[in-house]
Amino acid sequence: MNDIAFLFPGQGSQRPGMGRDLVARRPDLADRYYGPADELLGFELSKLCFEGSAEELLPTEITQPAVFLTSIAVLDVLRGHGVTPSVAAGHSLGEYTALVCAGVLAWRDALRLVRRRGELMARVNERTPGAMAAVIGLPAARVEELCARTRERTGAVVEIANYNDPAQQVVSGERDAVREVAAAAKRLGAERTVALNVGAPFHCTLMGELEQEFAAELDAVEFRDPKLPVLANVTASQVRTGAEARDCLRRQLAGAVRWEETLRAIAGRGVTSFVEAGPGRALSGFCRTTLPDAACHPAGEARRIDRFLNSWQGPGSTPVE
Fold first, then answer.
1. Is 153 helix (H, G, I), strand (E, B) or coil?
2. Spatial distance between the Cα atoms of 198 and 59, rounded to a whole number of angstroms
3. pTM of the model
4. Which of 189, 82, 204 is nearest to 132 (CA)?
5. Do 182 and 276 form a contact (C-beta atoms < 8 A)?
6. How many Å apart are CA 4 and CA 229, to the nearest integer?
7. What DSSP state is assigned to residue 31?
8. Contact predicate 194/134, CB 8 Å
9. Whole-number Å distance between alpha carbons of 205 and 174
10. What is the pLDDT of residues 158-196, one digit of tens each?
C-alpha cells in the first residue's frame, strides 16, 4: 500500500491502560520495548502505562515517554502486519516517533530525548507557570490577532502553539494572558474554548530558554538521514537529512506545530489514507476536519487496529496476534 501516512500523537493523547491490550496479544512487545524502557529510564514506565491513573500519567516527564513508548509498540504491530507508510509525521512529541519510523533515530535514543525534553519543559513551568487553551470555531488569523492585542496590552507571552485544523488553534503562554485570549475568543463567536490539562506552556517563546540546553542533548545522539519522507512540525515540509531533523527538533520547543499545513502537504503527495499510530483519536479528528475526503484510521488499541486491518486487507483479515 503506497498511499498511506502514519501520524504519531503527542502529549494529551495518554490514556490509563494504554498499550496493555497490545502486550496481552503480543507478549514479545514487553521484552522488546517495555522491559528495556524501564531499565533505561530507571523506573517502571510499563506499570504506569498499564496500571497508572490519569493523574499519575499527567506529569510532563511521565506523559511524554509513556505516549512515545505506546506509539512505538503500535508501530511494531502495524509493521508486523505488513503496513508500511509512504510518509510519516508526528504532532509535537509524536515527531520523535515519526523519526524512529523513518530510521532517523534509534528508539532508545529517542526515548532518552523524550524523557529529557519532558523534564526540561516541566522545569520551565515551575519558574513561569503557564497554560494552554484550545480555541474552537475561529480561524487562525482571528486568534493570532487576539494574541497580538493581548501581548501589546499586557506585555505577557501568549501565542498560537498549534495550528491543528481549520477550526482549532491552541494558544500557549502565561496563564492570565491565555485566559484573556480565550475569553476574548468567546466574545468574538468562538464555538468554545477548552483549557488544556498539560504540564507546561508548550510551543511558545517561554520554552526558548531550553533550546541551548536541549541542543546539547540532541547533539549527543546520532541522527541518520531519513529512509522515508518525514515532515517537521515547524516547517510543515520534508526533512532531507539527519542534521535537518535535529535542528527542527530544537526549534520545535518554542515553535508552533503547523499541523493543518502538514496534513495538506501530505495530501498533496497523493496520500489518501492516514493511520493514527498511537493512543487517542485527536489526530484522526484533525485529519477529518482538514481533509474530509481522506480515510482516517485511529489505531492506538488492538480493537482499532483490527478494524483498520479489516478495512485495509478486506473482510476476514487476521486480528492482531
1. helix
2. 8
3. 0.95
4. 204
5. no
6. 12
7. I
8. yes
9. 10
10. 999 999 999 999 999 999 999 999 999 999 999 999 999
